[in-house]
Amino acid sequence: KKPIVAIVGRPNVGKSTLFNRIVGKRVAITQDDPGVTRDRLYQEAEWQNRYFSLVDTGGIEIDAKERFSKEIINQVELAIDTAEIILFVVDGRTGITPDDREIANLLRKSKKEIILVVNKIDNKKFEDNIYEFYELGIENIKSISAENSMGLGDLLDDIVEKF
Ligand code: GDP
Ligand code: MG
Q1: For ligand 1, is residue 58 a contact (CB within 6 Å)?
Q2: ipTM
Q3: Is the distance from the beta carbon of residue 57 to the nearest atom of ligand 1 less than 6 Å?
Q4: Strand boundaries in 1-84, DSSP class E
Q5: Total domain count for the chain?
Q6: 140-143: long-range contacts at Cβ-Cβ below 8 A with a sequence spacing of 24 or more?
Q7: Cα 125 to ligand 2 centroid, rounded to whole Å
Q8: CA distance 54 to 5
Q9: CATH number of the domain residue 11 falls in
């Protein structure tokens, strides 16, 4: 069975953009409006001849009646239950939000491999933005730009190293 890698994070941080980059095609629908239901959320991915299943939890609607942040928490719990490796995506432009803190607290309690992915670091002038995220208590931090693929190779190296 292939390892499962799950992408979690609050809406609009770039989870679906990252998902599409890694699987190499536009499968997840990226949206400026959060909370839109999407399908085809599990895809096979490959890096350096290592294969894994990638999941975009942001598109999995668990209970539409729940308040929005509760829904995110449910998605994180699903990821903790099913995935070997969790990519926790945050927005390196907006900084830490209360939802980020809530997600980080859940993830730290789990025994899973967590990589904190600071996205939207589109060029060097944003590199210093990553430091505030150490406060979330997750040691393994990678900065990327899902939009222009910066840092993706390093991130994928790190993922397949953990299998
Ligand atoms: P999701 O809700 O977490 O799945 O986020 P999406 O992938 O739908 O992206 C939300 C918004 O952020 C879209 O407008 C994307 O174009 C934008 N976005 C995603 N990745 C990047 C990035 O690396 N840099 C910048 N500047 N914008 C990004
Ligand atoms: Mg999405």
Answers
A1: yes
A2: 0.99
A3: no
A4: 4-8, 42-47, 50-56
A5: 1
A6: 140/113, 140/114, 140/115, 140/116, 141/115, 141/116, 142/115, 142/116, 142/117, 142/118, 143/92, 143/117, 143/118, 143/119
A7: 26
A8: 5
A9: 3.40.50.300
- The 10s digit of each residue's pLDDT in 40-73 is 578 889 999 999 999 998 877 777 777 778 888 8
Instruction: Quote the ligand 1 centre to 30 CA distance (angstroms).
Output: 7
For the chain, first and last CA: distance in Å?
12
Global pTM reads 0.92
Q: How do strand 42-47 and strand 50-56 relate by DSSP bridges?
A: antiparallel
**Which residues lie closer than 8 Å to 130 by C-beta, 6 or more apart?**
92, 118, 121, 141, 143
Q: Which domain holds residue 96?
A: 4-161
Q: Are 55 and 83 in contact (CB under 8 A)?
A: yes
